[in-house]
Specification:
Mean pLDDT: 91
Shape: globular
Distance between the termini: 54 Å
Helix content: over 70%
Number of helices: 12
Strand content: under 5%
Radius of gyration: 18 Å
Structural class: mainly alpha
Order of helices and strands: HHHHHHHHHHHH
Largest sheet: none
Number of strands: 0
Length: 206
């Protein structure tokens, strides 16, 4: 799995080119759809394998995922937060190349239905749609925030899918290793948030 390389690229781009990404996202989205169509049409070309295997889409989703676990005070976190919506949209678009490639085999019975992957994909759909600012603006902040919690379900099933359907043992190990810092950082962040809430509550009741 070469996802770590792409993850590093997306993080560097977010850190150095966040204003450009935000300014041109309305151009990037249509270009992404065009690129997806080209990938599906020319999917047999070897250099398109990172799209077909889902490495590109997953790497974008990973950046979106890990951002939620990082310290919000860090400059890197603020940069990543600013492009979280564009990365989420682009990640979903590019990830579509993966199911579109394998769908014929699944539908013909040649390949078993990857249930964890299907569940992850279905959960992603409403998250993808509501990532567009034009849709988000029409939703109540609380409703949108509660909907985003579905992402945790998607993250979990993506990991299961990667473990169960890994093409090589190395890919399986890489997937697990990538999730370890996310789980650790997220638990630490939630623990600190719970401690802070407890202190504030105690101070109010004092």
């Amino acid at each position: 799995m070469i996802s770590p390389i792409f993850i590093a690229v997306w993080i560097i781009l977010a850190y150095t080119q966040a204003p450009f990404i935000l300014k041109n996202r309305k151009i990037l989205y249509p270009l992404a759809w065009v690129l997806l169509a080209a990938v599906v049409f020319f999917q047999k070309l070897p250099f398109l394998l990172p799209f077909i295997k889902g490495y590109i889409g997953f790497s974008l989703f990973y950046v979106v995922m890990i951002t939620g676990a990082l310290n919000p005070k860090w400059k890197l976190t603020r940069k990543l937060q600013s492009v979280r919506a564009p990365y989420s949209i682009l990640g979903f678009i590019f990830l579509l190349a993966h199911p579109l490639h394998y769908a014929p085999e699944v539908l013909s019975g040649v390949r078993e239905i990857p249930l964890p992957g299907v569940i992850a994909f279905l959960v992603m759909v409403p998250l993808f749609v509501t990532s567009y600012m034009v849709i988000r603006k029409r939703m109540k902040a609380k409703t949108w925030k509660n909907l985003q919690k579905l992402a945790y379900i998607s993250y979990a099933f993506i990991l299961i899918h990667l473990i169960v359907n890994a093409s090589t043992p190395v890919n399986r190990i890489v997937a697990i290793v990538l999730y370890i810092p996310y789980v650790g950082l997220k638990l630490l962040k939630e623990f600190k948030a719970a401690q802070m809430l407890s202190k504030n509550t105690a101070a109010e009741n004092a």
